[in-house]
Design a protein that fits this description.
Arc Repressor Mutant, subunit A; about 50% helix; single chain; mainly alpha
């Protein structure tokens, strides 16, 4: 897995807050309808990870971009590495 992550290190990936990461994960499932400009969605849009879709009727939607999907993929590859680092060691460890 490290080689997969290493291939993406040369790309400039934006730093995201916890709220922005949660918003990106939400967008990974489906477009989100928003009534007011949400600062987290605006930050994702400015970083190129989300796009705003204006509809003729109803509120605008935000959807994830290709770059946003890449970011989610990188986050999913890093999560197992982080979890492995905090697992207790020893004979009693699960």
């Amino acid at each position: 897995m490290k080689s997969s992550i290493a291939g993406h290190r040369n790309k400039k990936m934006p730093r995201l807050s916890a709220h922005e990461m949660a918003a990106l994960m939400l967008l990974g499932y489906a477009p989100v309808e928003i009534e007011v400009e949400n600062p987290d969605m605006a930050a994702l849009r400015d970083a190129g990870l989300a796009q705003r879709i204006d509809r003729e009727t109803g509120s605008p939607e935000f959807s994830i971009t290709h770059e946003g999907r890449e970011m989610l993929l990188l986050l999913s590859m890093l999560a197992p590495l982080e979890n492995a680092a905090v697992r207790p060691a020893g004979p009693d460890a699960p």
